[in-house]
Amino acid sequence: MLPLLVAGSLALAACGDAASNAAPAKTTTAKTTMAKTTAPAKNWIDVITMTPQGGFRQGNPDAKVKLLEFGSLTCSHCGAFAHEGVPELRAKYIATGKVSYEYRTFILNGVDFAPSLLVRCQSPAAAIQLIDAFYDQQATWTLPFTKPLPDDVQKKLSGLPPEQQITAFAANGGLDAFMRTRGMTRAKFDQCTSDKAGIAALNAIRDDANVNYKLTGTPMFAINGVTQADTANWAKLKPQLDAALS
Asked: What pLDDT shows up at residue 233?
């Protein structure tokens, strides 16, 4: 089911109750000189895959601690976590191979559909980069969606099939221009944002979060499959990760 995209403006605040680590070669000299080299350390930051559940996982798939986030790309609290928590999470937890981090886009409102579909339209590594970009520039690209749509635009959108509503609504807010600066053509933009299979997958992620993880707001985190209460920011989540690693 799609929420009506033309029902009103976006309330942004309402979203929730590395470089290679290759080791240098070492040599030892005895009666016969032999060179011994250490194998390059695994760069887990670069290990990125799309999971069967539709998320994007970064890090060691066999990590002791598996962190899952359900995040809305329009949610200001999710944006704050991306700025305050994700850099340290990657550098100190994911890079070591001890923690893997999976991000699943949660559809909090009608605006979320288009950017979430655009993320799904990328390769896994590019998807992570685009998620970062959406959060880095959240205040800019979401601004047009905070303003009420003119009556004539609402009427035009409401007459389109649901998947075409998403494309037209996103383009009306300038999201096509945002993606054009990242090399995406308008034809590709239209294809990605009207993908029926992608829309169904996003709805399935939302249903799973609500039913199986008892989501009450975004961002929401689960550690090794267990929902973590009251951890909507890095200061509260970090102790839970440390405890799981101990």
From this structure: 95
